[in-house]
Amino acid sequence: MGSILILNGSPRAPRSNSKRYAALFSENCKARTAYFNISSKNHVELCSKLEEFSDLLLVFPLYADGIPVTLLNFLKTLEQNPPANKPNVSVLVNCGFLESRQNDVAVRMIGLFCRQNGYRFGSVLKIGSGEAILDTPFRLLVLWKIKKLAASIQSAKYCTLQTTMPLSKKMFLKASTAYWTNFGKRNGITKEQMETMQIEK
Ligand SMILES: Cc1cc2nc3c(=O)[nH]c(=O)nc-3n(C[C@H](O)[C@H](O)[C@H](O)COP(=O)(O)O)c2cc1C
């Protein structure tokens, strides 16, 4: 059985949804795993760690329909510091919107990196409603797919999986608007303030 290095590419890795997805993966994987957050200072160290693993699992959120800059910068360093034995690269990506296919472009970005740099592309799990699903009963759908993802990487029978909350767009929009409005309220911010660019300042 191989071994899997799990790298969290979320810009808010220490308190991210990606961290929760990665933990579920480790708990449900029979192969040896090691987990690290990607930070701006540990790129070279992570590149050298890759030598010890047969597989790399990149866990990250969708940011502006693509991969977050935290992960992009790491991949740039990896391009310059490739390990002698290249692991197979799998992806666990989550996005805020309902549709798991929103993640397709980000997955293709990793696929392109693999093709251009000589890595075998492995399995993919695309999660829609990734900000919310773990705190709902639909968490079980994620767990089921994460188990399948782990089994596929362990056996090197790579596959593409997806999951999301089984809700209509209308219901999801209603529920997520209520969630974020309450979230803002708890932090002293109104819905109107959240709808302006001032929120960035
Ligand atoms: C700056 C930013 C950009 C985002 N862009 C998208 C996007 O294009 N599509 C989408 O579905 N979700 C988007 N999201 C939502 C995140 O993918 C979602 O909240 C995810 O659960 C965050 O995961 P993390 O906690 O692991 O970082 C964005 C979030 C942020 C903060």
Which short descriptors sum up this protein?
binds flavin mononucleotide; single chain; 7 helices; alpha/beta; 18% strand; 201 residues; globular; Rossmann fold
Element-level helix/strand string: EHEHEHEHEHEHH
CATH homologous superfamily placement of the largest domain: Flavodoxin domain
Rg from C-alpha positions?
17 Å
Just name the CATH architecture of the largest domain: 3-Layer(aba) Sandwich
Low-confidence stretches: none
In the sheet with the most strands, the strands line up as: 2-1-3-4-5-6
Sheet-strand content, in percent, reads 15-25%
> Ends: how far apart?
49 Å
Rounded mean pLDDT score? 96
Query: Structural class of the helix and strand makeup?
Result: alpha/beta
Distinct small molecules bound, one entry per kind: flavin mononucleotide
Indicate the overall shape. globular
How many strand segments?
Answer: 6
